[in-house]
UniProtKB/TrEMBL annotation:
Species in which this protein is naturally found: Paraphotobacterium marinum
Name of the protein this chain belongs to: LysM domain-containing protein
Biological-process GO terms, alphabetical: cell wall organization; peptidoglycan biosynthetic process; proteolysis; regulation of cell shape
Binding positions (substrate): 225
Family statement: Belongs to the peptidase S11 family.
Top-level taxon: Bacteria
Key words, A-Z: Cell shape, Cell wall biogenesis/degradation, Hydrolase, Peptidoglycan synthesis, Signal
PANTHER family, per the entry: LYSM DOMAIN-CONTAINING GPI-ANCHORED PROTEIN 2, MEMBRANE-BOUND LYTIC MUREIN TRANSGLYCOSYLASE D
Length: 600
């Protein structure tokens, strides 16, 4: 990501087309952290400030949401149900809505509600009712961004609440120009007030446009979208007429909502008359603070734990490691989270994904006869890297002339063990070797070996275990990694666990290599990439005989046979056999069950 190291980049451009001024325009100061003002038809900039800096864009996201919904050409008269699931899962901590959960609204009115009143619930519901569901919708948003050549833009949700929905004002100019081609978007974003009608139950809600300039006769606004988020400040994207000229204006990160109006007024007067203006000292201090945050490339925000949360689920949602959350908040890994507990989450703004590929990129143009596997081989990258870069699946079709985003990593480090922070571990009540191994980053086999334990792995509260810190790291280049992958066609009755077990790999690796999200369902005929990186270590790692030991596991609230089987890498059928559970029997919190855990 290109970092801008000055606050004010002002272009002195001649505007003979603006009748009120001749020659060069004088410099102007604006309150926002980033801004782009340009000609609607040519994109020629009149004014730019930090225009290439990647920043959170909040609800300006909903312009892309509306385009993707309309591109799908689903019935606008279809009633959509506003589900509790969407409210709980896609609204994050911002669980405020006037919509009654379970009520229904047409797709057309849902678009209007999302654009005009910036309803986050409406945007999420639209995405969930997309063909293929919510995750497919997000993939479509990113494909649309790339088709518009918005190469510094990335979306992770449909409503803009996630801080990793990022873009630049330069990219957003392209978004606004594209959105202007949709009559519905122009209409909805420039309607001052309206009323929408729900059913099941029947009620109505009044809407007011979030942009005050739309409600003023002093402004000729042709398209508009506002955005507001704590980490993103107040933002605005508009198409408007100024002194007879059609102008695109994109503003990112103002410290107050009123500052958007003030900045737009400054630009309007500046373009029409050439008159410059200044900004208050308090605004300059805000800019210094926010730009310092951008320069640091990371930002921290508070997160309130909700029902069903775990450290792992929160980390997965924000694309960071569980250990980062544990370390930042000084958590005890063995203790669960409390509903309402406040956590700090730090995100790297330069890495919207754990496998960032949207910056410092290059492109490959698909040729006749190309396939994803062939392209990956040509470019000495893995198929999974190609899929993740372009939000594709192994079954996706590509066509000649299509441009694929490429990032070729120089080297990849594959580390087999993580160095433990301490050389010993004191066993606590309820501990077992499986959980200790996960916590300290030492294999079960090594724990048994270094502590002369029996093969059952018997340990006792108060016992001190020695930990080993021998870390073997082998560096392989991407070409080596490419040669260790193969493609598997899913058969009837397959599960990710069964495939991983059959092909001697890990479920987590399959999920990572194929860019799957948690809960991904596979179907017969699907093509998935099977990683076999471990083959590169045959010269230094001897095959080991699989061993096992029995542990007693106490069922916790929220546990299911499926979740326990997934955690301990066993099958549901095995758990039932080991514990004499019949096919209809359920488990309950506090129940103790026996598990046979494998280790190498």
């Amino acid at each position: 990501m290109k970092q801008v190291i000055v606050f004010f980049l002002v272009l002195l451009i001649s505007f003979s087309s603006f009748s009120a001024t001749k020659g060069s325009l004088t410099p102007i100061q604006t309150a926002s952290v980033s801004m782009y003002v340009g000609d609607f038809y040519t994109g020629k900039p009149y004014y730019k400030k930090n225009a290439s800096t990647i920043m959170p864009i909040a609800s300006i996201t909903k312009l892309m949401t509306a385009m993707v919904v309309l591109d799908a050409k689903q019935s606008l008269n279809q009633y959509l149900t506003y589900t509790r699931y969407d409210f709980q899962n896609y609204m994050y901590k911002y669980k405020v809505t006037r919509i009654k959960i379970g009520s229904k609204l047409t797709r057309r009115d849902s678009i209007r509600f999302a654009l005009m009143s910036s309803s986050n619930y409406a945007a999420s519901t639209l995405a969930s009712n997309y063909p293929g569901g919510y995750n497919k919708f997000i993939q479509a948003m990113n494909r649309k961004a790339r088709s518009l050549k918005m190469y510094n833009t990335h979306f992770v949700d449909a409503n803009g609440l996630h801080p990793n929905n990022v873009s630049t004002t330069e990219d957003l100019v392209k978004l606004v120009r594209a959105a202007y081609n949709y009559k519905i978007i122009r209409q909805d974003t420039t309607t001052a007030t309206d009323t929408i009608y729900f059913k099941h139950p029947r009620y109505k809600l009044a809407m007011v446009n979030t942009n005050q300039m739309v409600r003023s006769s002093k402004w000729d606004v042709l398209l508009s979208k506002t955005g507001s988020l704590r980490i993103a400040g107040h933002s605005l994207a508009m198409v408007l007429n100024i002194d007879g000229k059609r102008v695109i204006m994109v503003i990112l990160d103002n410290h107050r909502k009123s500052s958007n109006y003030a900045d737009a007024s400054r630009i309007k007067e500046w373009l029409a008359t050439g008159k410059k203006s200044t900004i208050p000292l308090s605004v300059k201090r805000y800019q210094n603070k926010k730009f310092s945050m951008l320069s640091d490339s990371t930002y921290t925000f508070p997160y309130s734990v909700k029902r069903g949360d775990s450290v792992h689920s929160i980390a997965n949602h924000y694309n960071i490691t569980p250990n980062a959350i544990i370390k930042e908040n000084k958590l005890n890994p063995r203790k669960g989270l409390r509903v309402g507990q406040k956590l700090l989450v730090t995100v790297d703004r330069n890495q919207p994904d754990r496998n960032p590929i949207f910056f410092n990129h290059s492109y490959y143009t698909v040729k006749k006869g190309d396939s994803l596997t062939l392209i990956a081989k040509k470019l000495n990258i893995t198929v999974s890297q190609l899929l993740k870069a372009n939000n594709l699946s192994i079954s996706s079709n590509i066509h000649p002339g299509q441009k694929l985003l490429i990032k070729k990593p120089k080297m990849q480090k594959i580390t087999q063990k993580t160095k433990p922070k301490s050389q010993t571990y004191k066993v606590k009540s309820g501990d077992n070797l499986f959980d200790i191994s996960k916590q300290v980053g030492v294999s079960i086999n090594n724990l048994i070996k270094y502590n002369n334990l029996n093969n059952n792995g018997d340990i006792y509260p108060g016992e001190t275990l020695k930990l080993d810190n021998t870390t073997k790291t082998k560096v392989v280049n991407s070409k080596e990694a490419q040669n260790t992958q193969k493609v598997y066609t899913v058969q009837s009755g397959d599960s990710l666990y069964q495939i991983a077990s059959q092909l001697k790999t890990d479920v987590e690796k399959i999920i990572s290599e194929n860019n799957f999200r948690n809960g991904h369902i596979i179907h017969p005929g699907d093509k998935i990439i099977i990683p076999k990186i471990e083959e590169q270590h045959k010269e230094i790692i001897k095959p080991k005989v699989k061993k096992s030991f029995v542990i007693t596991y106490k069922v916790k609230r929220g546990d299911t046979l499926s979740s326990i089987a997934s955690r301990f890498k066993v099958s549901i059928k095995e758990i039932k056999v080991w514990n004499n559970l019949n096919i209809n029997k359920t488990i309950h919190p506090g129940q103790q069950i026996q598990l046979k855990v494998n280790y190498n």
